[in-house]
Amino acid sequence: MPLQLSRRGLIRGITAATAVTVLATQLAACGGDSDAATTTTDTAGTVTVGRLSNGAAKETTLKVAEVKSISAELPDAVRKRGKLVLGVGTLPSGNPPLGFVGSDQKTLTGSEVDLGRLVAAVLGLQPEVRRSTWENLFIGIDSGKVDVGFANITDTEERKKKYEFASYRKDDLAFEVKKDDTWTFDGDYHSLAGKTVTVSNGTNQEKILLEWQAKLAKEGKKLTIKYFQETNSIYLALNSGKIDAYFGPNPIFAYHVAKTAGTPQATRLAGQFSGAGETLQGLIAATAKKDSGLAEPVADAINHLIENGQYAKWLAAWNLSSEAVEKSEVNPPGLPLDNA
């Protein structure tokens, strides 16, 4: 499905997430990586999405059973183990609605976690969720401690050198600014001249922002990029005027905008951009080690969920229906090596 989009105008179709209270303090206290599994009380043949979400999602129980023709595609070692280890890069402070600590203050929940659990059910495997920082997520995949990353990972040609992908959601990035800020990104990087913007280190959006910075520098213009260790510091800097904008995943910002509406810390979305650049719709994908043999069965499991309606219900539960794709693809075209 992915549509080829023009980036000289704003991408439309944003769905605001449900406003909730975030457990930011508890998340920040989680510390380093954790191998603890997320446990559920799902009965056989069901997966409940949106559980323990503190209102960020509508709790919905979905019927999902193993599809033996798909689970037969799994590598022997994974099938015999009977477990699918899912990696999520949610430390230190969580990324609602994608991944965060639930209302019991210990269980990892979120849209990415739930899709991983749905895929595991189709594959007839027990899901085990391991949380880490963004950087350590990839170390976990590289080392074999993690089978598949479900962590808002953008499909890029650079990453294909080491990983294989099964796409499952559109990748739309966004700029978030203070509500009273009149600046809007119109798809042209020239509008960033003179701005100070923050972005998460090691991400696809950082790559895009750095390329814009380099282009502006060649034209004698300045774009300042600042980095912060955790989300709370970013929003303190934004609200105090130390930075002009925050560049990152659209779902996270839509959630935050809804959460802060009507408060002194209110923010707004100030324009969007595809995670794959100006001419290609970016895609978020389940990520496994290259030649692991996991991308194909994961994509088939996602397509089974699409065809049978659980995928649409999962997205609707998390207020992400605008980011639906028609089909999961194995290693589809991603952000080019030269995003010019």
Task: Tell me about the largest β-sheet.
Answer: 6 strands, mixed
Strand content: 15-25%
Radius of gyration: 19 Å
Order of H and E elements: HEEHHEEEHEHEEEHEHEHEEHH
Q: What would the principal axes of the Cα set say about the shape?
A: globular
User: Helix count, per DSSP?
Assistant: 10
Would you mind describing this structure in some detail?
This protein has helices spanning about 25-30, 70, 75-80, 110-120, 135-145, 205-220, 230-240, 250-260, 295-305, 310-315, and strands spanning about 45-50, 60-65, 85-90, 100, 110, 125-130, 150, 165-180, 195-200, 225, 245-250, 265-275, 280-290. The radius of gyration is 19 Å and the shape is globular. The protein is built from ten helices and 13 strands. Residues about 1-40 have low confidence and may be disordered. The strands form four sheets. Strands 8, 9, 10, 11, 12 and 13 form a six-stranded mixed sheet that branches. The chain is of the alpha/beta class and about 350 residues long.
List keywords for this structure.
28% helix, 6-stranded mixed sheet, 10 helices, disordered N terminus, 3-stranded parallel sheet, alpha/beta, globular, 340 residues
